[in-house]
Design a protein that fits this description.
With 279 residues, this protein is mostly helical. Helix content is 81%, strand content 0%. It is globular, with a radius of gyration of 18 Å.
Length: 279
């Protein structure tokens, strides 16, 4: 069950990220993230009375860390998606986003079967292979120097911290950690807004960002359920395969080319999911 939940979260994260990246190409990152984060509260309010959860100080701490890390990571990530090819940016963020919780999970004593361990290695290799850009991405990378990739890596590190914070929340806390996280993120952006004073996006761009936020929160709920049903290491790795969806959407919608390495990465990603499921 955890595998299916994590895989559904990966698909949802991929769709949400693609839409958020599209919105970020038309508006400043802060309002895009704000519309996305604000709209993401709606699924939480629907889920709150349906899922029993305990609220306490440990939930607040986990939610605050997750909210600040998630919002900061999303801003960095959306900016990276806006200035570089999505087929390069998403996998780069996922490399760090997957590696950070895997290292922490193993440090906390989680153990994997042989098949699952091989799946972890293959999955990380898949994400790395997917990061190898096609010719168009190389040219874009030269134009933006290292700014896009560095922003993607920084965003991925923040996502890894978000995954860890959500997982460390008590199992009986329901969706409260996500609700606290979203409140913390919105409060931080409200405090930042007068300092940045970004222009508001057009209505269509704001709507795209809002849809991205709703889908992103659904993905978060799926990830939360997956962590409750399985190991942090496995669920985080499978969820971190979301770049496969971003790469595919970028190819279909934006006509971004997939390099041979990216195609191999997508194939390896599917193999990694199968290995982990067997394990």
């Amino acid at each position: 069950m955890a595998i299916g939940l994590a895989l559904s979260a990966a698909v949802s994260f991929g769709v949400a990220d693609f839409l958020g990246g599209m919105a970020s190409r038309r508006a400043a990152p802060l309002p895009v993230v704000a519309f996305a984060q604000g709209a993401g509260v709606l699924p939480l309010l629907v889920a709150l009375p349906l899922i029993d959860g305990r609220f306490g100080g440990d939930v607040v701490v986990a939610g605050l860390v997750a909210g600040l890390a998630g919002a900061g990571g999303l801003g960095l990530y959306f900016r990276a998606l806006a200035i570089g090819p999505m087929g390069l940016t998403a996998p780069l963020a996922a490399v760090v986003g997957a590696a950070v919780p895997v290292v922490v999970g193993l440090g906390l004593g989680e153990r994997l079967s042989t098949a699952a361990a091989v799946g972890v290695v293959v999955g990380l290799a898949a994400v790395v292979l997917a990061s190898v850009p096609a010719g168009q991405a190389r040219e874009a990378g030269r134009r933006t120097a290292l700014r896009g990739p560095l922003l993607a890596l920084a965003g991925g590190a923040a996502f890894g911290l978000f995954f860890i914070a959500v997982d460390r929340a008590p199992a009986a806390s329901g969706v409260w950690p996500l609700l606290v996280a979203r409140g913390a993120a919105l409060a931080a952006m409200a405090a930042l807004w007068p300092l940045v004073r970004p222009p508001l996006p057009a209505a269509g761009t704001a709507a795209t960002a809002a849809v991205s936020g709703v889908i992103d929160m659904l993905a978060n709920l799926l990830f939360l359920a997956a962590t409750r049903a399985g190991l942090l290491t496995l669920t985080t790795l499978i969820t971190s395969l979301y770049p496969v969806m971003v790469v595919l959407l970028a190819r279909l919608v934006l006509a971004e080319r997939l390099s041979a390495a990216q195609r191999a990465g997508a194939t390896l990603a599917l193999g990694a999911v199968a290995l982990i499921a067997v394990g």
